[in-house]
Amino acid sequence: MGKNRxxxxxxxxxxxxxxxxxxxxxxxxxxxxxxxxRAKAEAVKFKxxxxxxxxxxxxxxxxxxTANQARxxxxxxxxxxxxxxxxAGTNEDNIQQENDKLRKLLADQLKKNNEQExxxxxxxxxIRELQTRMEPNKITEHPPTxxxxxxxxx
Length: 154
What we know:
- By secondary structure, the chain is mainly alpha-helical.
- It contains 2 helices and no strands.
């Protein structure tokens, strides 16, 4: 758009210059000279604006590149956070599954321990009964050794 205006202004200057050459009237010549001067000034103004706009475009392009790099870095960080979050969720699931297995194993072991304690108590009872039955029949033999309870069964 700026180039079109510049071309139009230069065309006007050219037309005015040609008109000037054929014009004999001094007032008209002065008016044309003033118009040419205004057109030249406007052309210089347009050139300055064009340079300024090109400078601004260059600056904005640099800013855009910087913003795109920052966005790309943020996207990489976001992807890493999502990856870490997913890994943490998977680890949490694995830990929960392992915890459940260990709880079940502990419950089974406690159940077995209780059953063994019951069996041990039954065996002690049977041994006591046998000892009491054997004592009256015993002739001077060594005294029976009592079965001591283990600390785990108390």
